[in-house]
Amino acid sequence: MLSDVKITTENKCSFCKPAICCSYITQEIETPRSKIDFENLLWQVSHDHISIYQEEDGWYLLISGQCQHLLKDGGCGIYETRPNACRDYSNEFCEFDEPAEESFNLLFENYDSLLTYCQNRFKSWSSPI
Ligand code: SF4
Ligand code: SF4
User: Would you kindly state where each structural domain of the chain is located, as residue ranges?
Assistant: First the structure.
């Protein structure tokens, strides 16, 4: 039973299946301000595997998809030469401990949720741009 095992930084990743931090990428985006900016985000979030979130640091695209180097046992197939983004990610307090969503102020996982936000933010949303 997992509850009987002491989780440490040495063994934590072996319990994290599939490896959460190897299952998506993020890309910072310009803070959207205008209707045209949000129109563009509506287009992007309409696609499979794309979400948009905002946290203290800014706005981001969240693109779900497992890394091609993730091995079946949860290891990294290019561990020695893995990118810096992977090297810099510490498992001392990671998404195994607390979902990333906890730090999001806004999260849009589909067109409808972002459209509702746009309609509330822009009183004249349905008028032509
Ligand atoms: S660093 Fe954290 S989120 Fe990534 S595989 Fe290890 S336990 Fe999972
Ligand atoms: S390169 Fe390795 S550590 Fe980095 S995301 Fe892919 S599997 Fe994970």
Answer: 17-121
